[in-house]
């Protein structure tokens, strides 16, 4: 069944809120403390909303094929999480989560332990959550839905602008500390970035609490410089070897020529002596 953009937007927000509740609950169970998860200020994690919308739009026709639905949901959510990690790292010069220590991970961005539950959530989404949400939203008049969607969209946009401004401090801090002491290790720069954020506004401190594994991405850039240095060094060595080889060849040719001339002189002297 087709729904309006307003309904899909509210559906996105509802799933983002559900995702936030799940993240906060998991944090409470694991670390026994409350933490406003996600990089936005409000109680929502957009990645859950995006994943839910993608699954709903692309996999609803697999409702009669639970195995295919489960595996495809894992694939979609895994790709989404990987791309989100990659883009946020490139934009803000920081890694917001790292699964490098987990088994079966891909570049530390996704791992088997975290994406398998997304397959289960995909099943719950299609069979339980979607019917409930869409049935109830469909009962509300179109005008009311549109008004609610506009209000929520304005609040969400303001939150996004403020949050992106706060997050930009991560990139600024990373660049600042890297320039001050480029010899510092990645861990040391990451520590300085976290301390810098904690010393700023409550919004910056919330960011550190939400992403305790926040890591400044300096190592990759230093590795690139190191690799470039190796390449330049290799080129210099190759050029030096070529020059040395040329000199050796020329010296060999010159030595051979001198030997020939010496033989000619000896032969000439020998002939004159025999006369």
Tell me about this structure.
The chain has 275 residues and is an all-alpha fold. The strands form 2 sheets. A two-stranded antiparallel sheet has the order 1-4. Strands 2-3 form a two-stranded antiparallel ribbon. The chain starts with a helix and ends with a helix. A hairpin with a 3-residue loop joins strand 2 and strand 3. It is elongated, with a radius of gyration of 32 Å. It is built from 8 helices and 4 strands, in the order H-H-H-E-E-E-H-H-H-H-E-H. The protein has helices at 5-31, 46-59, 66-92, 112-138, 142-180, 186-198, 202-210, 219-274; strands at residues 94-95, 105-106, 110-111, 215-216.
Topology, pairings included?
Elements: H1 5-31, H2 46-59, H3 66-92, E1 94-95, E2 105-106, E3 110-111, H4 112-138, H5 142-180, H6 186-198, H7 202-210, E4 215-216, H8 219-274
Antiparallel strand pairs: 1-4, 2-3
Helix pairs in contact: 1-2, 1-5, 2-3, 2-4, 3-4, 5-6
């Amino acid at each position: 069944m087709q729904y309006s953009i307003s309904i899909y937007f509210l559906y996105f927000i509802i799933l983002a809120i559900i995702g936030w509740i799940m993240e906060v609950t998991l944090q409470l169970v694991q670390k026994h403390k409350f933490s406003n998860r996600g990089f936005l200020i409000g109680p929502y994690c957009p990645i859950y909303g995006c994943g839910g919308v993608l699954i709903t739009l692309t996999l609803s026709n697999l409702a009669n094929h639970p195995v295919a639905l489960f595996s495809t949901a894992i694939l979609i959510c895994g790709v989404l999480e990987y791309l989100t990690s990659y883009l946020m790292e490139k934009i803000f010069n920081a890694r917001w989560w790292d699964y490098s220590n987990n088994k079966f991970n891909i570049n530390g961005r996704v791992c088997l332990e975290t994406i398998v539950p997304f397959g289960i959530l995909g099943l719950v989404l299609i069979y339980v959550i979607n019917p409930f949400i869409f049935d109830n939203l469909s009962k509300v008049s179109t005008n009311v839905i549109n008004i609610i969607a506009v209000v929520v969209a304005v609040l969400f946009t303001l939150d996004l602008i403020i949050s992106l401004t706060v997050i930009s401090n991560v990139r600024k801090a990373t660049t600042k500390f890297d320039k001050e002491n480029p010899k510092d290790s990645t861990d040391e720069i990451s520590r300085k970035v976290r301390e810098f954020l904690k010393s700023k506004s409550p919004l910056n401190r919330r960011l550190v609490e939400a992403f305790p594994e926040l890591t400044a991405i300096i190592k990759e850039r230093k590795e690139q410089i190191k690799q470039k240095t190796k390449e330049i060094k290799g080129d210099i060595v190759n050029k030096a070897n070529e020059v040395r080889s040329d000199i050796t060849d020329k010296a060999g040719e010159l030595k051979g020529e001198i030997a020939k001339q010496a033989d000619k002189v000896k032969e000439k002297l020998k002939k004159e002596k025999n006369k």
